Amino acid sequence: MNQYRTKRKGISPVLATIILLAVTVAVGVGVASYVFGLFGTYSESAAIKVQGAPTLKVLTPNGGNLTITLANAGAQSDSVSTITTTVNGQQISGSLYPVTPTTVNGGGGTLSFNATFAGATFAAGTSYQVKISFNSGSLLAVTTTAS
Q1: Which of 1, 8, 50, 114 gives a 20 to 30 Å CA spacing to 22?
Q2: Are 71 and 108 in contact (CB under 8 A)?
Q3: Which residues does residue 138 pair with via DSSP β-bridges, in sequence order?
Q4: Domain that holds residue 111
């Protein structure tokens, strides 16, 4: 029985140490990428997206009223500076109300507001792209259908 033990072969202690180190480094890299990826989303600047579906109501005789809610998943707050759309090749600026505040707070803040586009003839059932500019310089484009 003693002879059987001496004939057994295994991996050398050096090879075992190298394998353990490789596994440890691989797990460490995986954990670090997860943690930095998770915290990276909260340390970014503003990350503003549309919450829900915006509505664009046709006003008579001309004009439109947009109702929209924005949500900010980033850490930094940002404010709406302008809102525009294009109707029949003409760029139309919207008037925001309530006028203040127009800030979407960081860390999950939301902002609901209306924008009136006067002097343009919107057609019900037609899709329009609305561009929202922020003080940080970012731009959010949203497509909505007039009703």
Answers
A1: 8
A2: yes
A3: none
A4: 48-145
